Amino acid sequence: MRNRLALSALAVAATIGAIAPAHADQARDARFFAQIEGKWRGPGEIVAGKYKGTKFVCQFDGSVPQTTIGMSLDGDCRVGLFTQRMSATVERQGRGYKGSFLDGANGEGLDVTAGNVSRDRVALTLNRKQLDGAMLARLADENTLNVTVSVRVGEELVPVIGMSLDRLDPVKVGSVN
Length: 177
Fold this sequence. Notes:
Layout lengths: L1 H33 L3 E9 L8 E9 L6 E10 L2 E12 L2 E6 L8 E8 L3 E8 L2 E11 L2 E10 L2 E12 L10
Antiparallel strand pairs: 1-2, 1-10, 2-3, 3-4, 4-5, 5-6, 6-7, 7-8, 8-9, 9-10
């Protein structure tokens, strides 16, 4: 009887130990994405490839979904007189993330095929046919979001786009409604 109780206690402890880290990860991820809510604006530059040196300015509205962990950024980027609509959505699925940039790889965009979140950054894996890449979004502070998009060339990830976005609505950060 004592052995069965000990085994039962051990099984319960192992189950709680497996659930607690997953719950803690989800809570950390939700906190990170909540910090992305609001309006963002800032400059960017293409730093490699055919259009290297092209500068642009983007403006995004960040939001989080009501029922899942993730985020959406909707807005546009402007180069001179030309404006291009931009959007990205990622949501937690299982232990990773899935989503799309623009209309996904079946259209003219990219698929988000994986990702992970730490305290101040999200790293997402991007794919479109034979193109593999990554996007790293890091909160330098509560009002600055730095974004780097890289593509895989051989065994290396080569940065191709860099942006530094400033929060346009800083009063929302840390406020309680």
